[in-house]
Amino acid sequence: MDFKKHLETAWNMTLKFIVPLVILTLVMLAVSVVTLGILAPVALAGYTQSLLLLMRTGKEPRVQDLFSQMRLFLPLLFFGIVTFIAVLIGLFLMVLPGILVALGVLFCCFYMIPLMTDRGLGLMDAIKESYAMAMSGNKQDHVVAVIIFIAITAVGGSIAIGSLFTQPLATLFFLSFYEEKSAGFGKRSPDEKSSPIGTRES
Description:
The chain is an all-alpha fold. 71% of the residues lie in helices and 0% in strands.
């Protein structure tokens, strides 16, 4: 896997569309804070799909893109609550288990959101396929991609307003990697939609 290529792609696109990306990221963070995190997962889904379209077609991100995936509000809220509770229990036990749970969820569900927004998979189908993608091919590539994603977002989180730049950079890197990783991996036609929660409808 050519990580340099993915980083260069993310860097160049971030610089090219820096203004709309910063505005989109700022609004997403504001929505997350104002709604006490309730709309954070579905706003992130809209954010991710907007950047995926930017990467594929050059379509400039718009603020309304954040609310384009509202159909996923309940399943993503459910997933977020379950994950939060699991991590919280782990942190209460001995801290380390909570960190391990968080890393485990990130490792297994790394591709979950684009699988739901782009391919229309339901929550459980997306989790299963994300795990299958994580375990396919060279697993070290997946681990390295997760580490790079965490590192970029951590740098932004450690600097005032740094996330306004590093969040789109990290997301574009992730999506560039996702595009290569998912190429030929069980792709489905756009009209093969699934219900938001559970398995694919017949």
